[in-house]
Amino acid sequence: MAHKWLKEQDSHDGYELEFFAMHEFDHPQMMDPDFMQGLDTLRKRCGFPLRINDDARTEADMQRIYRKEIAKGQAYPTTSAHLQVGDNLVRAVDIEPAVPKPGDGSGLTLEERELELVYQALRLYKEGVWPNLGLGLETGHVHIDDTPRLANKRPAFWVAVSK
Questions:
Q1: What is the Cα–Cα distance from 137 to 70, expressed in whole angstroms?
Q2: Closest alpha carbon to 50 in 87, 99, 123
Q3: What would the pLDDT profile of 31-41 be if each residue is shown by its tens digit?
Q4: Which of 46, 53, 78, 86 counts the most CB atoms within 10 A of its CB?
Q5: d(CA 19, CA 2)
Q6: pTM of the full predicted structure?
Q7: Are 129 and 112 in contact (CB under 8 A)?
Q8: How far lies 23's CA from each of 6, 52, 117, 133, in Å?
């Protein structure tokens, strides 16, 4: 996928996203540029704002998210798509459509936006943009990943309660 090249401070490794700014990601330096471009395509196709709730996670993030499990001596996920393993950049986000507001470019209700988000993610899978799609419908967001190291478990679809 081609990147738009420019010199602005909101670029990441020399490319710019059309719909997302680098400050919308917690750890943009850990994110895969091609996956981020796919997210931009997703946003364009949806036609309404999307909010990223979570992207790449550090060990400190994992300890914060799973503090209850850790306090009980329980294990927490070490193969999460949100983790950078070796040199493999992260190809995962937790994302949700913005609550509808007048003039935001879409007349869809929140529920229709959620359906459109899932539909467009599935289109990117069917088109081969995200061949290793992991799609999770969570209570507070939609998890989307395209993680090659999890290819033996992909495609995958699940419904779960958000952490």
A1: 25
A2: 99
A3: 999 999 999 99
A4: 46
A5: 16
A6: 0.86
A7: no
A8: 17, 10, 22, 25
